[in-house]
Amino acid sequence: MSINVGDRLPQGSLSEFIEVESEGCSLGPNTFQVGDLVKGKKIAIFGLPGAYTPTCSAKHVPGFVALADQFKARGVDEIWCISVNDPFVMGAWGRDQKATGIVRMMADGDASYSKALGLAAEVPRFGMGLRSQRYSMLVEDGVVKQLNVEQPGKFDVSNAETLLGQLG
């Protein structure tokens, strides 16, 4: 069963590679409880099949990086990219995409969070296995306000422009 508008995000954890040590966050991979991160915040979240893959690298992440200031101007506190990869890969990909400090590159290493969302899918092409479907959502204080899930192999509704246009 897939998450829907009006649903609360499921409990679970995601990992992020932290580039600069700060209070409460050590350098390297850190694991966070999603419920703690979303409390009291408006977050634009997009999920995609994999780091360094063609559409994800050429269109999906760059779109959110390019429009980040417009999301912030519309009251979005954070932008997250969730992918079924490890935090080391997500951190390196974030640096490569010039997303550091703009988009939080959140690793769902074993697809458990994608499964909890009901948005996991087998991607047999290139031997990728269990991955995240491509989607975008707006979450306010842990509740899904907008949700755009792509059909397999498509990139029509989960892009940054569509989600930005849905912000009230």
UniProtKB/TrEMBL annotation:
Matches recorded under SUPFAM superfamilies: Thioredoxin-like
Pfam annotation, one family: Redoxin
EC number, as in UniProt: 1.11.1.27
Leading EC class: oxidoreductase
InterPro entries reported in the protein's UniProt record: PRX5-like (IPR037944), Redoxin (IPR013740), Thioredoxin-like_sf (IPR036249), Thioredoxin_domain (IPR013766)
Regions annotated as coiled coil: none
Domain Thioredoxin: 3-168
UniProt keyword terms in alphabetical order: Antioxidant, Oxidoreductase, Peroxidase, Redox-active center
Described function: Thiol-specific peroxidase that catalyzes the reduction of hydrogen peroxide and organic hydroperoxides to water and alcohols, respectively. Plays a role in cell protection against oxidative stress by detoxifying peroxides.
Protein name per Swiss-Prot or TrEMBL: Glutathione-dependent peroxiredoxin
